[in-house]
Design goal:
alpha+beta; 280 residues; globular
Length: 280
């Protein structure tokens, strides 16, 4: 598996920016999605050869002016700029922000109270490994029937990549799998021994569905979006989700799912029952 996260991120962003967005004519017979290397190099004021070295991982220490120029040409958001800076800083092995600390599995009382306040919405607390730590009853009604919460220690990544039921539950399974791998890669990834052990496990259990994504999916999951879910009793659902990141010491996040259309809202009302917090 590739460890060229900086090159992967630059290439994926280059391929996602259209010529029109960069102020360039599209031109006939473009074979490259997004921008060509020559176009990015010209706009950023660097040589094509240097851009190739960056994308191939042969140079991982661009200067701050070069980073700023590339970020502007690639139209990076503030979050993407922070991610780019982190990738450059982490290019050299030997130090991770997490140290040797294991994944946080303790749920603070205030986080339990916050989940309680989120009822009847479907909300779940995850750590960086994808372990399900706590959830609302709304989340259990939503995901219990598809098997996501089966077992004593449910894990979202293992379910999506390793449980065949996930492909039925998520009509956009490829996109969901991409997001799970992106979330795993956000941070030190294999430099963290706990994450490396999970990656080794997924390499065996999921094979190329995991390793192929590690090589092509940048470690920057979307914080918000829409998820399609095929619920066994409620039918097809469209859910808007938001990610609430907790403190760095916890390295945990809350995902909240809300109906994105009237049909989903009506279907979720049909699942209603007296609510209370359920801890995972």
């Amino acid at each position: 598996m590739s460890d060229n996260e900086l090159g992967l991120f630059l290439r994926s962003r280059r391929e996602s920016v259209s010529p029109a967005e960069a102020g360039l004519p599209a031109g006939p017979r473009r074979r490259t999605p997004g921008l060509r290397r020559t176009e990015v190099a010209m706009l950023a004021g660097v040589s094509v050869e240097y851009l190739i070295r960056l994308e191939q991982g042969r140079d991982r220490h661009p200067s701050p002016p070069v980073l700023a120029a590339l970020a502007g040409v690639l139209r990076l958001t503030p979050v993407e700029r922070v991610h780019l800076h982190r990738l450059v800083k982490s290019a050299d092995a030997g130090f991770t922000c997490r140290g040797d600390a294991g994944p946080a599995r303790t749920v603070r009382p205030t986080v339990h109270a916050l989940l309680d306040q989120l009822e009847p919405a479907a909300a779940v607390l995850l750590n960086q490994m994808g372990d399900v730590l706590a959830f609302t009853r709304g989340f259990r009604r939503l995901t219990g029937p598809i098997g996501l919460l089966d077992g004593p220690e449910p894990n979202v990544v293992r379910y999506v990549l390793g449980d065949p039921r996930a492909r039925t539950a998520f009509p956009d399974w490829d996109q969901v799998a991409d997001e799970q791998v992106a979330a795993l890669k956000q941070g030190p990834f294999r430099a963290d021994r706990h994450m490396a052990a999970l990656a080794d496990e997924l390499t065996v259990t999921a094979g190329d569905e995991f390793t192929g994504r590690v090589d092509r999916v940048p470690g920057l999951p979307r914080a918000t979006g829409t998820l399609r879910l095929a619920h066994p009793s409620a039918g097809p659902l469209r859910l808007a989700y938001e990610t609430l990141d907790l403190s760095a010491d916890d390295d945990q996040r809350i995902l909240v799912y809300l109906p994105s259309d009237e049909a989903t809202e009506e279907a979720l009302r049909g699942l209603s029952e007296p609510l209370r917090l359920v801890a995972g």
